[in-house]
Amino acid sequence: MANTLFDKIWDAHVVQNVEDGPTQLYIDRLYCHEVTSPQAFAGMRARGLKCFRPDHIYCMPDHNTPTHDQDKPIEDPVSRTQVDTLAKNAADFGLEHFGMMDKRNGIIHVVGPERGLTLPGMTIVCGDSHTSTHGAMGAVAFGIGTSEVEMVLASQCILQARPKTMRIRIEGELKKGVTAKDVALYMMSKMTTSGATGYFVEYAGAVVRNLTMEGRLTLCNLSIEMGARGGMVAPDETTFAYIKGREHAPKGEAWDKAVAYWKTLKSDEDAVFDKEVQFDAADIEPMITYGTNPGMGMGITQSVPMMEGMSEQAKISYTKSLDYMGFRPGESLLGKKIDYVFLGACTNGRIEDFRAFASIAKGRRKAEHVVAWLVPGSWMVDAQIREEGLDKVLEEAGFEIRQPGCSACLAMNDDKIPAGKYSVSTSNRNFEGRQGPGARTMLASPLVAAAAAVTGVITDPRTLL
Amino acid sequence: MKQKFDIITSTCVPLPLENVDTDQIIPARFLKATTREEKFFGDNLFRDWRYHADGSLNKDFVLNDPTYSGQILVAGKNFGSGSSREHAAWAIAGYGFRVVVSSFFADIHKNNELNNFVLPVVVSEPFLAELFASIKENPKMEVEVNLPEQTITNKATGKSEHFEINGYKKHCLMNGLDDIDFLLTNKDKIEAWEEASR
């Protein structure tokens, strides 16, 4: 029978199908960060349990970590307790832990792939909705709740209903200044934040094949913002070249064996998906969001949509959203003054994102009134930035590179956007208060963020390329 | 936490907004707790909608309106989108809701509710619209959620709808069992899978 890529990996991990219930799925990797794991470990203690397969589990703090002075104790005592609790839990349960200042530390979704811990064909979970990122490597990866983290700690298994499958093809060739982030924001604007709920998405088509690994990671990262359970890309030479030689990647004979298997991980020619969607790269321009969910995005030269044709209930939500942002239907965002720029997060905190940002910053200066936070996704990304001399380019333009972590994506550390201020952010969510109470977030690519940072207003990056 | 679920008849709290995300249900700054205290999370449910920036009560928000109370939260479509934070389900349960009714739920949040013995009930768009209307007309009207029969009834109009839940999860809710209880009973199957896939 013809199978999709998703079917092949899922089926290979079924321990049993519970009668009139979910599937018991074996999990190859559990990643734990400090925010969604403490109550799971507490539950394990309360039940007197040990981890069933501790060598399948990796822990690292990322949400609370400050982006400066990481060598000193965290100032906020509550954040510090949460980070320390993860270290203690990892030690008590015998789990690998990449603590703050450890050169392996960073945002869990950046670290997994770059360390070769995330590999094609795996099942991967983490108490974090952006676990979908890892699907870019050809894995079935999805976010879970804390009770489910506890399930995996206890049994290396999870109970899940089998999702439906969707294939999204993006055909054609991306235009100048259009990145993986724009593709994702464009798809969300068409599909809405619930358009893929209940589905596991496979991204395919010429655009996806031609994306770098970093681009694919960005694309899969944002799957959850369409409601998808996860997103994935079939592994290919780009994937294998990315993985080869990484710390935890198979070596020698094991490498050849692994690649031979990974090459079988693609949807069969005649595989049937529950839903197929197609987009044309020619329709996509640099994107920006104007509202308070990631589906409220538009091409940067377009205007905020009018309310005509919306249901009464939708109008209430739409009005609330625009009021929060301080925008009006029909207005253009180009030329709007902005206050903050954030480059980073598991969405756009990789080396390619810093290269893109630097390509616009080079030879220009940060606008005087703009506060810019440039936060690498990991120490490894930080090292590469310095190796390539991007730090010099950015410093000359008036930017400073901070220390790795989730940072202003959800503002659990000190990096909070003040109430009422406008932020152009490369992160993944523009929800009310996401970057701090009252903060107004506009999601965009690193190119759009850089263009805003050097001009101080919303600017089409194509005019600066 | 493990409250057995059977039939719940209650008045409702209406929240006729769409795409209510988990950042609104419980903002990120309340995720720093390392324990699962229901009161803490319940007190901070919809924190930034319940309180103004200066800490004063937002009298316009439904949770602060004494007209509405009950164990059933009724919300617009795509409830619980965004982050996987189970803290959102803890906040809903901690506040005292046992049921959330909507025409559409985000996947991860729906699982999180079920794992905390809060029942997500998916109803049709017309049923939801009528329910909002009924509550508006008479805030004291009641809804019956019958898990054994898998029905929800708007007692103002008498209209009833069937809702879906898989047999396994229904059994768990009705008997106060969780998934870990189940998984711990089949370690032999897990080891057999590991052996077979070596």
Shape of chain A: globular
* Average predicted confidence as pLDDT of chain A: 97
**Poorly predicted regions of chain B:** none
Distance between the termini of chain B: 38 Å
The CATH topology label of the largest domain in chain A is: Aconitase, domain 3
Please summarize the sheet with the most strands of chain B: 4 strands, antiparallel
Beta-strand segment tally of chain B: 8
Assign a percent range to the helix content of chain A: 25-40%
In one word, what is the shape of chain B? globular
- Main CATH class of the largest domain in chain A: Alpha Beta
Mean pLDDT of chain B, rounded to whole units?
96
Over all CA atoms, what is the radius of gyration of chain B? 18 Å
Flag low-confidence runs of chain A: none
Order of strands, main sheet of chain B, comes to 1-6-7-8
| Strand order across the largest sheet of chain A | 5-4-3-6-7
| Order of H and E elements of chain B | EEHHHEHEHEHEEEHHH
Quote the beta fraction of chain A: 15-25%
Characterize the main sheet of chain A. 5 strands, parallel
C-alpha termini separation of chain A: 49 Å
The structural class of chain A is alpha/beta
Description:
- The complex is a heterodimer of chains A (465) and B (198).
- Chain A is α/β, with parallel strands linked by helices.
- Chain A has two domains: 285 residues, Aconitase, domain 3 (2-Layer Sandwich), CATH 3.30.499.10; 177 residues, Aconitase, domain 3 (2-Layer Sandwich).
- Chain A contains 16 helices and 18 strands.
- In chain A, the strands form five sheets. A five-stranded parallel β-sheet of chain A has the order 5-4-3-6-7. A four-stranded parallel β-sheet of chain A has the order 11-10-9-12. In chain A, strands 16-15-17-18 form a four-stranded parallel β-sheet, with helices on one face.
- In chain A, helix 13 runs parallel beside helix 16.
- The model of chain A has no long low-confidence stretch (mean pLDDT 97).
- With 198 residues, chain B is of the alpha/beta class.
- In chain B, 34% of the residues lie in helices and 16% in strands.
- Chain B has nine helices and eight strands.
- In chain B, strands 1-6-7-8 form a four-stranded antiparallel β-sheet. In chain B, strands 2-3-4-5 form a four-stranded parallel β-sheet.
- The relative contact order of chain B is 0.17.
- The mean pLDDT of chain B is 96.
- Classes of the chains: A alpha/beta (465), B alpha/beta (198).
